[in-house]
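Aim 2, interim progress. The first record below pairs a target sequence with its structure tokens.
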Amino acid sequence: MRYHHLISVLLWLHLVLLAPGCGFAHRLRRFPAPAQHVVTPPAGVLASVSVLEDDQSQRPFEGEPYTEHLSRSMLVTSKSTICIEPAAPETELRILVRGVDRWSTGFHEIHAVTGARYREVADEIRFLPREISAPFLLSMRDLTNVYNGYQLVEDDLVVVELSDGESIERYVFSNRKVGLHIDPTLDLMLRTPVSDLGEGLPLLSPVLALGMAFGYRFADRNKMITNGWDLVGLQFSIGVGSSTFEGGGGQLSVGQIIDQGAFTALGGAGLRLLDAVTVQTLINLDGVVGEQTLVWTVGFGIDTIRFTQLTRNAIPRLFRDNTLSAPVDVAR
């Protein structure tokens, strides 16, 4: 009965916060979820819009129905091409993008795309048309090019806006990045009991390491997220530990660590999970190039860069309703 009161409090919190219909419980469930968006579907009068995949399969624009009046944004990959066939000549065209994940921004218009030229030093700037009278192909590969002045990454939105001067149609797409992706990391890890360190060393000495994470996303026939392998990647790191790998002395205070310079250069490799968690085997680099004994340990921690991005605006997202006001009928 020692923990009776603690268990009662936890059960009470569970009932209050996670009960069905609780607003906080809903916001808690959606907090770690990937970004999803619903919009009013376009009428499809001004143009016929479809998506051409890299395997030459073509899909008409059909946002997945969400409610009677809303549909989900259509998923495209970084290898897709958006095909726009205007119903009338001189249809006005605007391309807008919005960052929603790592670098959140408002919608802004894209006037040009930039990319390298084969065997040339100079980059090519290609301006997008403001009016189209014939079918126009918009390549997602161009929009995700690293030489652009903007960065279009995972879950970011692309809007194709068409107008004939009287009405406007907007086609909303969500970007899915496929293929190889490489991300810089800044990992904060703790050592685990799985090690070759011996006795008397501080178990939870933090390790701060810079690294590079490598992952690969496969796409199925419809180019959607497939089998979960995109949630697992390889990681390589180099950093420092806040205590030496060998020698006794027990737990060091912060002052002793600074005074004694008790830091060790570390190298590591392992897995990156769920785009933020890392598990790595770490070795002391002095044991490779110096005179110290080569020892190893297993570190477990988080990518602080990604963790900061994921928890941005956490308080208002969890404790505010954040619903939009009632819609107002407008001319367009």
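The second target in this work package is listed in the same format:
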Amino acid sequence: MNNVCLRICTMKSRLGIGKYPDTEVGRLLKVEPNAIRFAYYHFETIDFVDEVKEAAGIKIMIEKPGVDHEKYIENSRLLVSEMPDMERLKYISSVTRRRKIERSNRNASEGVGTHMSKRYLQAVNHGKASYK
């Protein structure tokens, strides 16, 4: 028989995971509400009281203990569709910007896809500059 210890977190609880391990759930809601939603849908043994779920924007409930990545995506789309137009545009542009930065950082660390201007490449070819 498999016993699962379900942890039900309140506003004063500390998740103990991710980038904010010592931060209370209430403060985390103000800083990074997506972390609460992610933990709810992706960690089998973590659940929240109804007050936290409502504040985090968790509209689609799942049975706990359990995980459901598809419902996480569905809930995120529902939240974005309910945003006012200007707020939605700001959110989408910030997500897009963040993804581009992450992609460029990843590519730069791998040495792939780094953009070099034509002028710089000509200088390298003529011996006036060197690769970094």
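The chain has six helices and two strands. This observation will shape the mutagenesis plan for the next reporting period.
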